[in-house]
Specification:
There is one protein chain. By secondary structure, the chain is α+β, with helices and mostly antiparallel strands. The chain contains two helices and six strands; from the N terminus they run E-H-E-E-E-H-E-E. A hairpin with a 2-residue loop joins strand 5 and strand 6.
Length: about 90
Amino acid sequence: MRMIHKAIFFKTEEDIKMRRAFILRWFADDRLNRAGFSIEPPEAHEDVKTVSTEYTCTIDEDFRDMVHMMKLMINPVVVVVDGARE
């Protein structure tokens, strides 16, 4: 699988200064019509798990839906998606 999207969620202004963030990485395997993702908490260790799933719409739409869900869960002050601040 190859990484095709990345989103970074900063909960507070202090987290921005300290570069602590939740990181969502989105992977895809077009041959198998499957996507996968991993979510790293700010204090991530080497045991971060990756989840694989079949995508329901398109890879990009599923990623945007996951970003939306992460925003609801984390309530971040800043979100950076694929290098662009939202």
